[in-house]
Amino acid sequence: MAEPKPEEISHPPMDQLQGLEYCIDSNPSWGEAIALGFQHYILALGTAVMIPSFLVPLMGGTDDDKVRVVQTLLFVEGINTLLQTLFGTRLPTVIGGSYAFMVPIISIIHDTTLLNIEDNHMSFLYTMRAVQGALIVASSIQIILGYSQMWAICTRFFSPLGMIPVIALVGFGLFDKGFPVVGRCIEIGIPMLILFIAFSQYLKNFHTKQLPILERFALIISITVIWAYAHLLTASGAYKHRPELTQLNCRTDKANLISSAPWIKIPYPLQWGAPTFDAGHAFGMMAAVLVSLIESTGSYKAAARLASATPPPAHILSRGIGWQGIGILLDGLFGTLTGSTVSVENVGLLGSTRVGSRRVIQISAGFMIFFSILALFASIPFTIFAAVYCVLFGIVASVGLSFMQFTNMNSMRNLFIIGVALFLGLSVPEYYREYTAKALHGPAHTRAVWFNDFLNTIFFSSPTVALIVAVLLDNTLDYKDSARDRGMPWWANFRTFKGDSRSEEFYSLPFNLNRFFPPS
Asked: I need a labelling partner for 231 at 20 to 30 A (CA). Which of 25, 34, 249, 422 fits?
């Protein structure tokens, strides 16, 4: 038997991911694009409903307040997504709410001056205004780092090796939003997980009029089937005598969003009143803005790969961060009760559908802004979304791991850096979560609340911990003699806009705006 050739044993590294039906600048038919955009909109509902549903009751808000916050968050998400895809990185990324802002926002909620307000509605309003003020001030961090190109300078210290654990933990770091939530309602979560995998993978070759309809629309089909099944269980009284927590996670009528939703309610800036400003609140929120910046950087690199684009140059990344800062400023002005970051689940959906088209995401932004019957879809139990997250977060994490192809994984140095960064990126935030659950406050617990918020927010984030560890080790441990092992020769082509001819195709501004804002 003949010896196998080297090319038959291993696969050569590839700048662009192969096997996608539509890349960043190619578009499906209008009908298919609208359906895919609606699918991204439905997926974005999960986080848009979950964050306000958790925070608004803590603030003393009612179901009416909750649905107004959900509507506001979706509206601003749509605006931010449109701005990012038109003028930011131009990658097909949905800009959604971020869990990174939960720590400083909960800290604001527990501020003694706000807790002493007896009237629940006034407590909600004053807390909302305090959160708005903190977001407005903290947004300046991303705006300055982005538009001054300081973040582009920082990215010079990033290598493919250093990005592996960061991008991987953008997905893996959200493991607590996956199966632990599915387990709260197994009879809905498990069928959803099985059905989504079956449609998107095992039945992906089923075609209708030359369209792989089950693969392309696996999310919307499986959600419709399981949502109807969950509604049937709710209507039949299956959960009538079950514990309250089970009902909350399984029933389709527990969100109280349909009955509370106004028919027409257009969000507008300062709708909750004039924001209030506090230095301590703002400083804690700045940590969440930094975390959002790091997580989004990883997500942008994953989205570029899943859209079959080349890695975004440093200038483009920095431009996107600047626009994301504008997005957080809008969050503060409108009162969304959270800041903005790239929606990881929607990045994963690019890979699941094999459609990385920018137009599809822009259409989904239109749905977020103009779609008026959100309350109907907001009744989908969060367990259904959690089942989908198990797949989509995993896809994003695997994109991070795919960057190993550009590095030397036979180097003990590289194995050490990736292993330590991955482990600490998972272990440190888990320690912070367990400590907070037992002590009801984070490990950083001094008299300076702003200092506590800053440290607790930073170390609650897996990608942030991974970035600190990986970049520090990668730039101090035998770095002079390991450029090739780290993947720097490959990376060098994409450091600048003109380093690779494909950058202009993927990242140039629309309407010939590059004449006025030439990329560096």
From this structure: 34
Collapsing DSSP to helix, strand or coil, 158 comes out as coil
Beta bridge partners of 95: 342
In sequence order, the 6+-apart residues with CB closer than 8 A to the CB of 437 are: none
CA dist 57 and 402 (Å) reads 41
244 CB-contact burial (10 Å; exposed 0-12 / middle 13-18 / buried 19+): exposed
> Quick one: tokens of 114?
């706000």
Residue ranges per domain, the chain?
30-399
Structure confidence by residue, pLDDT tens digits, 461-496: 999 999 999 999 999 998 778 889 998 888 888 888
Q: How far apart are CA 93 and CA 90, in angstroms?
A: 8
DSSP 403: G
Question: What is the C-alpha to C-alpha distance for residues 460 and 106, in angstroms, rounded to an integer?
Answer: 14
Q: Which residues are registered as beta bridge partners of 22?
A: 355
Residues near 198 by Cβ (< 8 Å), separated by ≥ 6?
none
Give the separation between CA 411 and CA 417, rounded to whole angstroms: 10
**pTM for this structure?**
0.94
Tokens of 159: 């290598």
Q: In degrees rounded to 5, what are phi and psi of residue 176?
A: -70, -15
Backbone angles phi, psi at 21, to 5 degrees: -75, -40
Q: Which residues contact 20 (CB under 8 A, 6 or more apart)?
A: 306, 307, 308, 354, 355, 356
Q: What's the mean per-residue pLDDT of the chain?
A: 90
Instruction: Return the amino acid letter for 311.
Output: P
